[in-house]
Design brief:
The complex is a heterodimer. In chain A, about 75% of the residues lie in helices and about 5% in strands. By secondary structure, chain A is mainly alpha-helical. Chain A has one domain. A two-stranded antiparallel ribbon of chain A has the order 1-2. In chain A, a hairpin with a 2-residue loop joins β1 and β2 (about 135-140). In chain A, α3 (about 70-90) crosses α8 (about 185-210) and α5 packs antiparallel against α8. The longest helix of chain A is centred in the first third of the chain and has 32 residues, at about 5-35. The model of chain A has no long low-confidence stretch (mean pLDDT about 90). By secondary structure, chain B is of the alpha/beta class. Chain B has two domains: about 25-235, no CATH class; about 330-565, Rossmann fold, CATH 3.40.50. Helices cover about 60% and strands about 10% of the residues of chain B. Chain B has helices at about 1-15, 25-50, 55-75, 80-100, 110-130, 150-175, 175-185, 190-195, 200-225, 230, 235-250, 255-270, 275-295, 295-310, 370-380, 400-410, 425-435, 440-455, 470-485, 500-515, 530-535, 550-555, 560-565; strands spanning about 135-140, 225, 330-345, 345-355, 360-365, 385-390, 395, 410, 490-495, 520-525, 535-540, 545-550. Chain B is elongated and about 95 Å long. The relative contact order of chain B is 0.10. Classes of the chains: A mainly alpha, B alpha/beta. The interface of A and B includes residues 224, 262 and 284 of A.
Chain lengths: ~280, ~575
C-alpha cells in the first residue's frame, strides 16, 4: 500500500487529468448528442491544436495562451467545414464514425510528416510555476486546465439552460424538423455547435501541449478514456463528461499508484464496456 | 464444369508458387496479400453481412497470434498443433462476448463499434501485463518442411486459410444463414418477426469470423517470429479491414477480397520511411471517399452495372396446389387471456381477452391508441408481455422468442411498410419461406416467392428494390411477404390506409382470396366500410381492453362501442 501523501498526490493528478478528459469530452458530447455525429477526429484535432501551439510557442516564441487567438477561430472554421461535409453528403451516424476515422488517419499522417513520430515537449515558463499545498504539489498548468474545463463546461451548460439560443439548440436536438417548423434556424445552429466543438478541441490542444509530451500515436491513447467519460456523463451534456472524466481520472490514478501503471487503461475501457452493456438505451 | 476446371487450374498455379524458386520477397508479399484477404473476408462475415461493424477484429487476430506465440515460444509445442487452438481461443472469446452483447437490443451500429474498439484495448492491456510482461515473445517454432523455404511454407498455410475463408464466405452468402444475416443488416426486428433466429445467427457469424481471424493470427505469429503487443493489437489492422471490405463491397462474399488486394498493393507502394506516412494518409482519404461516394464498393458498383443489363429471369410457376380452403369453425386458433403490457406507466394493454376462430376474418377496431398495434406486437413476440396468456393452437406463446412464433405459423404486416431496403422485392418475399413452418432452401423459397409476386401483381417489380416502389406497391409487398410463409394466422395492420378507393377494392379482393386459401386473418382497420364488408366477426378495443366481440352489425351498435368512438350520450 502506498503512503497517504502518494495517494493524495495521485488523487490530485487524477482530478487534473480528469479535467482534460472532460475538456476533450465536451466537444465530443456536443457533436454526438446534438448533431448525431460520432467525431473520432476530435482527438486528432486536439493534437493538431497542441502541435500548432507547440510550434508557435517553441519556434515563433508566442505566449502559449495567445496562440488560442489563432487556433480557436481556425478550428471553429474547421468544425463548420466538417459539418458542411456531413450535411452535403448526408452521412449517417455510423458513417460519421468511419469518415472521422479516415480524417484521423490523415491528420495523424500530417502530424507525423511535419513534426515526425518523435516525442515533443513544449518548453514554457508556465511549466515551472508550482505551489506547495501541505505535502502536495500543484502546478499552474494543471490548475489552468481545470479552470478551462470548468469554465467551458459550466458556460456551455448555462447557455443551453438559460438563453433563447440554448433553448433553440435543445429543441433542435430533440426534433430538428419540428424546431425548424417553429422558426428555429436549425442549419445555422448545427454549424455553430460543430464550430464550437472544434474550438473547444483547440483549447484542449493548448492544455495537452502545456501538460503532456506529444507524439502522433498518442491520439489513440485518449479515445477510450474520453469516450468512457462522455458515455458515463451523458450525450449532449456539458457538465456530465467533466464529472465522469474526473471520476475516471482519479480511479486510474489510484490504480496506477496501487498496481503497475500499465494496468491503468483497463479501468476506463472496462468502464466503457460496462456502461455500453448496462445502459445502452441512453445512447440511441 | 468450366468454372470447376478454372478453379482447379488456379489452385494448382497458386500451390506451385513456392516450388519454382522465386525470391523469398515475392512469397512474403503474396503471404501478406493472402492474410489481408483472410482478415477482410472474415471480418465481413459478421460486420458486412449483418451490419454489426466491429473495430475489434485486430483483437481476435491478436488472440490467435498470442495463443500460437505462447504455446510454441514458451511451452515448445508443435506449431501446426497450435493453429486449431489459436482459432478456437479466438472463437471462444468471440462467443463469450457475443453471448452477452447480442442479447442487448440497443447495442448496434456505432455502439457495437465502440464496444469492440474498447475490447481491443482491454485485451491488449491484459496481453501486455499477463502474457508477455512487456518485451514481447520470441517465437522459435519448427516449421514443417512442406516447401523448400520457410516463407514458402507460411505462404502455403495462409493460402489454405484464404481458401477456407473464401469458401466459408461463399457458402454463407448463398445459404439461408447468409440471407438471414442480410435481413438482420436491414431491419433486425422485422427479420426476427419473419422467423430469422437473429441471436443465434449473429453469434454463429461472430464465432466463425473470430475463428478465421484467430487462425490467421496463429500463422502470423510464426511469420513475424517476434510478437509484441503494440504491433499485434493495433487499431491500424482493425481500420484496414474495414477499409478493405468497404472498398471492395461489403454486400458480396468476394468484395472484401477485392478490396484487400487493392489496399495491400497500394500500401506496398508506400512502405519505406516517409512514404509510409503518405500511405496512411491515402488509406484515410480512400476510406472517406468510399464511404461517402461508393457505398456499394468496387465490386458492388460493377455488379450493379452488370445486373441492369441482364433481363429478369422469370421462373415457371410451381406445380404445387394452393392450400385447401378451410371452412371456418368455432374452434379457436388463438386465445388471448388477460394480456397486459405497460410502457413506462402507460397501460397500453390492460388485460385483453380475445378469441380468434379458425378460418375467420376477425376485424379488430378501436380508436387511435387503443392498443391494436401493441396487441399485434405482443402476439408476434416483438414485445414481452407483463402478464396473461396467449395460446396458439393450444400452445403457449408467452415467453417464446419472435422467430419461434413465426415458425409456429403466425405472420404480420406493418402499418407503415418495413421492407428490407437493400434486398430486392423477390428476396424480400423469399425470406419468410426460408424461416417458416416448413424450412425451404433458397431455390424453393424463391419459387414460392414468385407465386406471391404474381398473386399481388408485383411480378414485374421482382428485381427492383423496395425504395423504387410506390406506397400502394409497398403495401402489397408487405402483404406478399407475410403470405409467403403460408401463415395459419395473419395479422393485417391497416393495409388499406393511404390507398385510393380503386386500390382499396383490389386489396379487399386480395384479402378474400387469402382467406379462401385457408389462412385465418385478424384485420386491423379504421376504414369501416372495409371492416363491415369483409369481416365475419369484430372485436373492439379501447384503453387496452376488449369491450365487445361479435357479428359486425351488432357490435357496432353496442352502447359501449358507440361511446368509445363518439363519447357518452347525454340525453
Amino acid at each position: 500500500m502506498p503512503s497517504a501523501t502518494l495517494l493524495g498526490q495521485s488523487v490530485l493528478s487524477g482530478v487534473f487529468i480528469g479535467a482534460l478528459y472532460g475538456l476533450l469530452g465536451l466537444g465530443l458530447s456536443l457533436s454526438w448528442g446534438m448533431l448525431r455525429q460520432v467525431n473520432l477526429a476530435h482527438f486528432a484535432l486536439a493534437f493538431l491544436g497542441a502541435y500548432v501551439t507547440f510550434q508557435l510557442a517553441a519556434v515563433a516564441k508566442v505566449d502559449p495562451f495567445v496562440t488560442l487567438a489563432i487556433t480557436a477561430p481556425a478550428f471553429f472554421a474547421l468544425g463548420m467545414a466538417l459539418h458542411w461535409f456531413f450535411l452535403r453528403f448526408s452521412v449517417t451516424l455510423l458513417n460519421t464514425l468511419l469518415v472521422t476515422f479516415g480524417i484521423t488517419s490523415i491528420i495523424e499522417a500530417g502530424i507525423q510528416w511535419y513534426w515526425t513520430a518523435d516525442f515533443h515537449r513544449m518548453e514554457n515558463a508556465y511549466a515551472a510555476v508550482r505551489w506547495k499545498l501541505g505535502p502536495l504539489f500543484l502546478s499552474l498548468t494543471d490548475v489552468v486546465t481545470l479552470g478551462f474545463a470548468l469554465a467551458l463546461a459550466v458556460g456551455t451548460w448555462a447557455v443551453l439552460r438559460f438563453t433563447d439560443l440554448g433553448k433553440a439548440i435543445r429543441a433542435t436536438t430533440e426534433d430538428a424538423p419540428i424546431a425548424a417548423a417553429f422558426g428555429v434556424n436549425e442549419k445555422l445552429l448545427g454549424y455553430l455547435v460543430s464550430g464550437l466543438a472544434a474550438a473547444v478541441a483547440a483549447v484542449a490542444g493548448l492544455c495537452l501541449a502545456l501538460n503532456h509530451t506529444l507524439a502522433p500515436v498518442q491520439i489513440y491513447a485518449w479515445m477510450g478514456v474520453v469516450f468512457a467519460a462522455v458515455m458515463m456523463g451523458g450525450l449532449g451534456r456539458p457538465i456530465g463528461p467533466l464529472v465522469a472524466g474526473i471520476v475516471i481520472g482519479v480511479s486510474e490514478a489510484i490504480t496506477m499508484a496501487v498496481t503497475n501503471p500499465t494496468w491503468a487503461p483497463l479501468v476506463s475501457f472496462s468502464l466503457l464496456i460496462a456502461i455500453l452493456l448496462l445502459r445502452p438505451a441512453r445512447f440511441s | 464444369m468450366r468454372t470447376a476446371l478454372a478453379l482447379g487450374a488456379i489452385a494448382i498455379v497458386l500451390c506451385a508458387v513456392p516450388f519454382v524458386g522465386l525470391p523469398a520477397f515475392y512469397e512474403s508479399f503474396l503471404y501478406l496479400l493472402l492474410s489481408a484477404i483472410v482478415l477482410a473476408t472474415s471480418w465481413n462475415l459478421l460486420s458486412g453481412y449483418s451490419g454489426y461493424f466491429s473495430f475489434g477484429h485486430g483483437a481476435f487476430f491478436g488472440v490467435g497470434v498470442y495463443t500460437t506465440a505462447a504455446l510454441t515460444g514458451k511451452l515448445g509445442w508443435n506449431f501446426l498443433w497450435t493453429l486449431p487452438l489459436a482459432a478456437l481461443a479466438a472463437m471462444v472469446l468471440g462467443v463469450a462476448l457475443g453471448a452477452v452483447v447480442f442479447r442487448v437490443r440497443a447495442l448496434r451500429g456505432e455502439l457495437f463499434a465502440l464496444l469492440t474498439l474498447a475490447i481491443t484495448f482491454v485485451l491488449a492491456t491484459i496481453a501486455l501485463n499477463a502474457v508477455d510482461g512487456g518485451p514481447g515473445i520470441m517465437v522459435n517454432a519448427d516449421i514443417p518442411k512442406l516447401a523448400p523455404t520457410a516463407s514458402g511454407v507460411l505462404y502455403l498455410l495462409m493460402l489454405a486459410a484464404a481458401a477456407l475463408t473464401l469458401w466459408t464466405a461463399y457458402a454463407m452468402f448463398h445459404s439461408r444463414f447468409g440471407t438471414g444475416l442480410f435481413a438482420i443488416h436491414d431491419d433486425e426486428d422485422v427479420a426476427e418477426v419473419m422467423g430469422v433466429p437473429t441471436y443465434r445467427f449473429k453469434l454463429a457469424a461472430f464465432a466463425i469470423s473470430c475463428a478465421l481471424a484467430g487462425l490467421a493470427g496463429g500463422i502470423h505469429a510464426i511469420f513475424v517470429s517476434y510478437v509484441t503487443v503494440a504491433e499485434t493489437f493495433s487499431i491500424a489492422l482493425a481500420v484496414n479491414v474495414v477499409l478493405m471490405s468497404a472498398l471492395g463491397g461489403t454486400r458480396h462474399w468476394l468484395g472484401p477480397a477485392v478490396g484487400a488486394v487493392a489496399i495491400t498493393v497500394l500500401l506496398y507502394a508506400f512502405t519505406s520511411g516517409q512514404a509510409a506516412v503518405i500511405g496512411r494518409a491515402l488509406t484515410g482519404l480512400i476510406l472517406i471517399i468510399v464511404i461517402v461516394a461508393m457505398p456499394a464498393g468496387i465490386l458492388g458498383q460493377i455488379l450493379k452495372r452488370f445486373r441492369t443489363k441482364t433481363a429478369p429471369v422469370r421462373l415457371p410457376r410451381s406445380e404445387e396446389s394452393m392450400q385447401k380452403a378451410v371452412r371456418h369453425s368455432s374452434e379457436p386458433i388463438l386465445l388471448v387471456r388477460g394480456v397486459a403490457k405497460a410502457f413506462k406507466g402507460i397501460q397500453a394493454l390492460a388485460g385483453v381477452d380475445l378469441e380468434v376462430r379458425r378460418g375467420e376474418i376477425l376485424g379488430l377496431v378501436g380508436p387511435n391508441g387503443s392498443g391494436k398495434s401493441t396487441l399485434i406486437n405482443v402476439v408476434s413476440g416483438h414485445y414481452a408481455v407483463d402478464g396473461g396468456s396467449i395460446r396458439f393452437e393450444g400452445e403457449e406463446l408467452v415467453g417464446k422468442p419472435a422467430h419461434r412464433i413465426a415458425r409456429a405459423g403466425i405472420a404480420r404486416t406493418y402499418q407503415i411498410p418495413r421492407p428490407f431496403p437493400q434486398l430486392t422485392v423477390l428476396q424480400n418475399i423469399a425470406l419468410p419461406p426460408m424461416f417458416g413452418q416448413v424450412v425451404m432452401d433458397r431455390a424453393s423459397a424463391e419459387r414460392e416467392a414468385w407465386r406471391w409476386l404474381e398473386f399481388t401483381n408485383l411480378a414485374d417489380k421482382a428485381h427492383r428494390y423496395p425504395g423504387e416502389l410506390n406506397l400502394h406497391q409497398r403495401k402489397f409487398l408487405e402483404l406478399a411477404r407475410a403470405l409467403a410463409s403460408r401463415p395459419k394466422l395473419l395479422f393485417l395492420d391497416e393495409v388499406l390506409s393511404g390507398l385510393t378507393p380503386a386500390e382499396m377494392d383490389g386489396a379487399l379482393r386480395l384479402i378474400r382470396a387469402i382467406r379462401d386459401q385457408g389462412a385465418t386473418i385478424v384485420f386491423v382497420e379504421h376504414v369501416m366500410r372495409a371492416v363491415m364488408e369483409l369481416t365475419d366477426r369484430v372485436a373492439v378495443l379501447t384503453y387496452g381492453k376488449a369491450i365487445a366481440e361479435g357479428v359486425p352489425g351488432e357490435v357496432m351498435r353496442h352502447p359501449d362501442v358507440v361511446s368509445a368512438y363518439l363519447g357518452a350520450a347525454h340525453v
